[in-house]
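Office hours follow-up: a student asked to see two folded examples consecutively, so here they are.
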Amino acid sequence: MSHVPLMKRASYVDTTPGRASMRGSIIGTSARRDILKMQAAQDKEIFDPMLGCTLTSFENATLDLIGGKALQCWRLARHGFPVPKAFIIPTYVYSMHVADAGVAKLIDTVYNSNWKDEKARGRAKASMETIRKRIQSTPLNPEVVSNLDAFLEGLPAGSTVAVRSSGSAEDLASQSFAEQYDTFLYKLTKEDIIDSIKLCWVSMFKDHILDYASRSDDYIPGSIKIPKMGVLIMKMVEAEASGVCFSRNLWGDKKEVMIEAVLGQGEGLVSGAITPDRFVLDKYSTEILHSEISTQAQKYIRSNNTDGVKLVDLDKPKDQPVMTNIN
């Protein structure tokens, strides 16, 4: 089986002369689908001949192109930090998929409805169920599958991957959807990985997204930008400990860095199931200014019977720092 080389260098241009626009237009479903495909094809031609490529293949990347998670991982890799081997499915693949599924116009209708109105929110949720079903039932683009095959074949035998949502609205100051979308861990087979890619896209259309956005005091009907989603597929790391580093202290000085860490996989931290150790450092001297060491009696590890993770009890609760030599 032959594959297009995955390491081709590429660059992306955000603004495209003559690019078709749907903003403010009223067109039928068939025409809208054609325009979405044309936009995706234009992006594909400018950016790269492949639908999906490795993290290190990008010369330039943008939030609109690959979404928030993938963009931050790309930046870390560019600065020399160790990042697990990864494959990115850009947002234009999502755009092509919803066009093929015939739900682009329905998505517009959902995002332009008044989510604070109970009846309108009910109609939107019914539409979102249709969107979810069609996204899942529509086959993934064959070229994406071929490039994904090549990436998976390059991993060591028996490797599992994390399939991570990478939305274009995850980290926006005005309408952050961080932690609202889904991630799937320890995926082994190509079929499960493809299903997980679609489920990442589906997670943009779950009922709680409407409830979450409509509770905001800043919410104005029709004001939320319709998000796009890339997907980040990363080789799983068997983590003894996991953590999150905030580039500024969430409760203090912007000149401080905050790190939180737990034993095992990061699910315990991001879900809030386990109280983490917390360290506050001076951003410039790296001096530890404050630390809180929690007693952790559980951790998340790989599930033996299924993919994903499970919560297990420790033989002895941890009372020492999860991380050492952090400065």
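And the second, which I mentioned at the end of office hours:
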Amino acid sequence: MTLIEVLTVMCIIGLLTAIAVPQISALASGNAQEIRHRRNAQELAAVCATAEAAGLKFVAANDLEQSIRNIIKGGTPAAGPFQGKGFGVQGLLEEDVQGVQRYLSLRDGRLIYDSSGEMAAAKQ
């Protein structure tokens, strides 16, 4: 191979890389965001169940978004063995509130996590 051929091949590889890297990054970023929403939904459901056992009521009747906001705000039981212990999930962004709704639903006054996102999609 001559020097010109080697340089041509390197230029072609560079162009293909320049095209492929942003596409791969976009896919990875989207997947990471979905994973974050799932993990946040798991955390919200777990905190809600634990807080309910401690005597707090975060679930708003038939209002998933308000229930999520109640958990984010948090609360502290006034009596019982968990008196003074804080329950809540701080630090979620507005986009997180919208994103987790796909993986959460309300059933019989409880917040339910669904990893597939099918329960929430079926309600729409």
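Two things to take away from it. Strands lie at 104-107, 110-113. Residues 65 and 101 are 7 Å apart (CA to CA).
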